Amino acid sequence: MKALLNPEFSFSSISQFHTNKLRNSTHSPNQTSLRFPSKYRIGRGACLVVKAALDSAIMDQLGLSESDIRNPSVSTSYRSSKLPKPNQTLLDAQARVCTGPTQTRPLSEEQAFKVFDTILRSAKGELKDEYKISRAQLGAFFAAMTIRANAFPEATQWSEGEKLAINTFWPLLVRVLPPDIIFIADPEGSIMGLGNSIGPQYVGNCATEMRLVGALREVLAGGHLGYEEVQGILRDVLPLKVDDKESSDVSESLLSAFLIGQRMNRETDRELKAYCLAFDDELGPPPVADVRSLTHYGEPYDGNTRYFRSTLFVAAVRSCYGESCLLHGVEWMPPKEGITEEQMLKFMGANTSLSPLHAKDLLEDEEVGFAYVSQREACTSLYSLIGVREHIKKRPPVATAEKVQRFVKARGKEAMVAGFYHEGYEEPLLMLMKRRGVHSGLVVKGEEGALSMTTRLRSASISKGFPVNYCSGFRSLSMASAFEVDGVSRQNFNLEVNAMDYGFEPTNTPRTDRSVSKNIELGLAALRGEKGPAYDRIILNAGIVDHLLGCDGAEDISAALDRAREAIDSGKALKRLLNYIKISHKLS
Fold first, then answer.
1. How confident is the model at residue 197 (pLDDT cuts 50, 70, 90)?
2. Coiled-coil stretches, from where to where (predicted)?
3. CB 3.0 to 4.6 Å from 133: which of 13, 87, 417, 474, for a disulfide?
4. DSSP secondary structure, 58-114, as one string
C-alpha cells in the first residue's frame, strides 16, 4: 500500500500564518504536514483539511516505509518517484571526475577498483533496481575519463590507481559493455591499451545518433563545436521520451557524455548561446506584457540547501512600486535538490502550472505584478533532461543557460538578474543577457551561488574567486535594448556590495537546511514587518537591484531602500503575495 500525503496549505490560512505554528512543526522524514488548528478555505471555496503527521507506529501498521511518504516541508521530497535512482558508488566517483581541468580529483587505487568492479558487476547483470548503473551514468563517467586522458593537465589526468584499475578491469569490461559505452571510453581505440576497433568504427544506430557521435568525437578529444552544430543536436534529441526510454531516438549514454563533456571542456560563448536560444520558439513567440518595467530573475534551478532564499519575497516587494518581476525555475532539480520558488509557492497553495500567457496576465494585474513560470510548462524539451541530469551528477551547460530565459517580454524596459558561483561564468552570463536584448543585466554572487546578497560580515577566510555580494552588470543609457546599442551607450560596472555601507547591522544568514516551511516562515514573517536578518536581506536585495539596474526612482540607494521598506511596512508586499496565490487559481 503506497501513500502520497500532501498538506493543502490554503490561501486564507496564510494571512493568519503565525511564525510559531511553523516553528512548532518538525521536519523529520515522517512528518507529512504542518499542524494547523482548523480547516481553511482556499480561493475557489474548496474546503480543505490539513492532514496530520504520521508517527512511526501508524506507518508500521499501514506497512509504509519512509520512502513511501512524501514530506512536503523538505526540498528533497519533491523528487519524482518515477525517476530511476542512480548508483551511489559511481555517482560519488562522478562527483570527483566529471568536472573541470583544475577541479577534478583523481580516484585513489581503492576507489578506482571499487568503481570498476561495480561497473563490471552491473554490466554482467548482477546488480538490480537502484543498484544497477544506468547508461547515462556510464556515459558521463567514461566521457570524463576519456577527456581527462586526452585533454587535461597532468595533475588531473588518470592517477596511478586509476591506470591499474583500468588495466585490470578493461579486458573484462570490453566483453560485456554495449558498443556505445565502449566508443565513449575509447573513441579512437588507443586509450585503453587493447587496440579495439569498436570505438573507431562506431557510428550510432540512427541518423540522430550519427550526428551526435560525430560531434562527440570532437568533444571527447577536448575540442569545441559551432553554434549551429550544438543547436542542431539539441533540437534533434530533445525532448527525451521520459516514459519510454526504449523508444528514445538517442542513447542516454551518448547524450550524457555530450552534456558533461562540453561542461568539462568549458563551453565557448557560441556553445552557451546555442543552449540558451535552442528552444526559444518551442511555444511560439513569447507573450508581451503591457508593463513599464520587467525584471527576469534567473536563480540556480537546483535551489538552496543551507541559507534563506529571498527572491520570491523580493519580487513581491518590488512589484509594489511598478517593478514587475518574472521568476522561473522547476520544482526539483539535481544536484543540490534544494529549496526552490516552485516548492514554496506550491506549499503555500499557489497554482504552479501556469503558462507564459498566464504569467503575462499576472504581471499586468495591478493587484499582483509578479509571476512564476515553471520550465515544465514553458520549455518541455529542457525539462525532459531532469532525470539525465541527476545521473550526470555535475551541472551541464544548460544549468547556466536556463538562468537567462525570456518567457515573457515587456512593452517597457527589461532587465535580467542571474546568480553565479564559479569565477569565469559572470561574463558569459552577461553576454547571454545582451544577446537577449534586455536594457540592463546583472549577475550576483549571492550565498550558495544564488541571488541573495547577505548582510553578514565577510569571512576572514575568503573562498576562491569573487567574494559573496560581488556584482557585475550593464545598463543601457537609453530606451534602446542592449542588442541595439553600442558600448558607448551602455554603462558597465562591477562592485562588491557591503551592507554596512547602507546602514545594515551585520547578522548571520538564517539557516533553512532544506526546510521549505522554514524558508516560508522567515519570508512571511519579514513581509509582516518582523525586523531581523530575513527582513534586512529582502530590503537589501530589492533596493540594491533597483539601483544597479537603473530603475526609475532608485538613483539614490537610500531612497531605493526606503521604498522597499515602505512596501513591507505598509503591508502591500504581503498582500500582493496573497493575491498571487489566490488569483493564480483563476487562470488554470
1. confident
2. none
3. 87
4. HHHHHT--GGG---TTBGGGGS-TTSPPPPHHHHHHHHHHSS-TTT--PPPHHHHHH
